[in-house]
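Appendix B. Chain record.
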Amino acid sequence: MATRRLEKTITRDLSWLSFNERVLQEAKDTDVHLQERLRFLGIFSNNLDEFFRVRVATLYRMKIFGKAAKIYLEDNPQKILDEILTTVMEQQKDFDRTYQQILKDMAKEGVYIKNEKQLDAAQRAFVTRYFSDKVRTNLVPLMIESIPQMPLLKDKSIYLACVLGSSQNPMMQRYSLIEISNELPRFIILPTDGTEKHIILLEDIVRFCLPNLFAQFGFDKFLGYIIKVTRDAELDIDNDLNTNMISELEKSLKNRKKGKAVRFVYDRTIDPGLLEYLTRRLSLSKKDHLLPGGRIHNFKDFMDFPEAVFPDKSRRPSAMIHPLLVQPKRILEVLDERDVMLHLPYHAFDSIVDMLREAAIDPNVTQIKITCYRLAKKSKVVNALINAVRNGKQVTVVLELKARFDEEANLKWKTQLEEEGVKVLLGVPGMKVHAKLCVIKKREFSRIKQYAFISTGNINENTGAYYGDHYLLTTNKRIIADVNRVFSFLENPKTLAPLRLCKTLVVAPVNMRKHFLDLIDNEIKIARKKHKAEITIKLNSMVDEILINKLYEAAKVGVKVNLVMRGICCAYTQNKKWKNNMKALSIIDEYLEHARVFIFHNGGKEKFYISSADWMLRNLDHRVEVACPITDPVIQKELKEILNIQLSENVKGRILDNDQRNRYVEVKPGEEEIRSQVAIFDYLTQQTY
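Structure tokens predicted for this chain:
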């Protein structure tokens, strides 16, 4: 059968930049708390850093290696790179304007960020003492003109590039480079006499104290400019089956620190001679994305801007314990009676920790198996698992060593868990284990009872406080049988046979794309019979061209397609040839919308799924992922109500049209404002069971 020609989709990298613009919109919104606006600036900056480390670096390699590259090719990578640079430059200008406005708004609240030239006498004395006591010994100034080989500038670090001069000897000019330590706080609260709050950045303390470092060498003129290099993350780790994964990963982490520079950001007021010298010594060119910026870089640190300086605090409500799981209560006994779904971050992640702790100390529990992708730095999940081993349970942890930018942390967790007696499995060669699964086995008289949870997001109490995710806690035997099949594969990944045996879970890379294609095809058949046909999809990212084209086909025949996309949406959503345009919106608010949910009308017998997988090539073909059907009527009702609330969003919703202009959803005359994250919290607080 001939392959059908695929219709066009939006370039994924440009769609991603459109998403990051939505993050910047939150920083602009004066209805958002000032601390949250600064946090969104930090998120925007952090997102952009990762984008350059991964996507821009990949496009560079595509351009260099072309069809010989063992990576997914985009059409015309140079054209995309040019469009990226143009867009990023415009967004950077918008970012700078936004930051200046936030500074003005902070001043109205009596909060000021001071630089080294704005200090009063008491603050100058404080900064001098602080530098002497805390900072000086953490600095290693490099006189770079005297060094034959230019030192490697680390990714994720910022540097103060200095011009040192003498008023007595104009010919006495030198360049120096100082790494700003990330071991010290970036923001230091200054002493003040009144009610105002003053903060200074660590690099401005170093600027102020440059004479303490260099005056003894005859210099009395000092200029300092912040610079930063973003490097290729070198994520294309060799996936050969015979490769020693740990050594290969460790090699990749070392390479990442010296990967090719894909962006060089500098203070646009930098001394021209210093800039020319640095770009020459670093072997950079304009093609290496030399980007002029403001005075401050590594804005990601603003995600942790000190809350204490603000007179009023952010109004984010505290998470509630699910009414059925309020302690003291045996969660496994609750699950004997019914399935439960946690909707994070409205429901507290504490219940997952409570479930694992209970399993750890229950004398009848014999075994726990769990997948871990990103763990919290001080993980209560790990503590519960270690406690389980100490209580004589068999504990198996599937630890994904290739979790992007968490690889180093996961190597450390591997060592700690193994030292405690946990059986650690290191994922699957050639693919990531992204499915979020746990199964608990309990001996009850002569039989084994089993409990499981399946999640759309990381099993991580830190991200659980602000990621929107769903956790199904279940004793459903068909689901658990498939969870065990997935673990059988993970324990012996020589063949996909165990995954092919799954009857209830939909599993990638085996059948997930085909399953969703079949479900869409079913809606298409129903629409052609002039019956109601509807699909509602919530994802982080929609990139897969095959599935997008199937949605085009559905819209063409009149299927109502609703999309809630946080990030990338490569689908065009409007076409004059379709009977129904897609309704597509993106919600960016205090919580990060992370869940993946699917509802198919199915002729009135609705089918519901939650999943860990976005509709991307990597998720569907190169990862172990699951989509879990939801059959409990109470939970179905909750999921549908939550999705309906989100589709009604008209405060924080942006319309995803063909141009991806990020227009806000308008409140129609007579229509009430619906801020979905507030409305969902209110809805869940009213639920009784």
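Further analysis of this model is presented in Appendix C.
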